[in-house]
UniProtKB/TrEMBL annotation:
BP GO terms, sorted: Mo-molybdopterin cofactor biosynthetic process
One GO molecular-function entry: GTP binding
Residue ranges crossing the lipid bilayer per the database entry: none
Domain of life: Bacteria
Location of the Molybdopterin-guanine dinucleotide biosynthesis protein B (MobB) domain: 8-141
Name recorded for this polypeptide: Molybdopterin-guanine dinucleotide biosynthesis protein
Organism for this UniProt entry: Methylacidiphilum fumariolicum (strain SolV)
Gene from which the chain derives: mobB
SUPFAM superfamilies hit by this protein: P-loop containing nucleoside triphosphate hydrolases (SSF52540)
Family annotation (Pfam families): MobB
Amino acid sequence: MQKQAIAIVGFVGRSGCGKTTLICKLVALLTSKGYKVGALKHAHKGFQMDCPGKDSFKFKDSGASSVCIISEKQAAMIVDCECSQQMILNAFFDLMRSFRYHFILIEGFKKDPFPKFCFIDRIEQGEEVLQETDNCLGFITEQRAPISSYKNLPVFFRDDASAISSFLLDARLPLL
């Protein structure tokens, strides 16, 4: 099977700024236009995906290093990783290319090299954010900004998912 080139776009900002809500809106808009979209979230702390009492939970609880659940239409995998986060990301990206996804929208991973939108409270924060964040693609503000660009980067209103979706489709995003 031939692998699909995939556009990877991140969304970074403080907790509660609307990243998840915006990503959900973008997923809905892009999939409604026929694009296959994956989503990925960085978990700073551990996480629990499985439910106590389920067979898959029992496998993991018994010591299995990985558990995969597969049905006709879905699959889920929980893997204990003793490798770098970058190695895990690369494996995920490779898997999504195999499944012929067009976009992966990522919440978090501020320091990773893929292009990302930076959520800011005020446009004045732009300079500081640019120094802290690698490969900023543009800014997203909670209120409508009085300007459409800052430091030659676009500025979007957080609730205007349609404009951000159009930008993603029109931009020449690097493909992986």
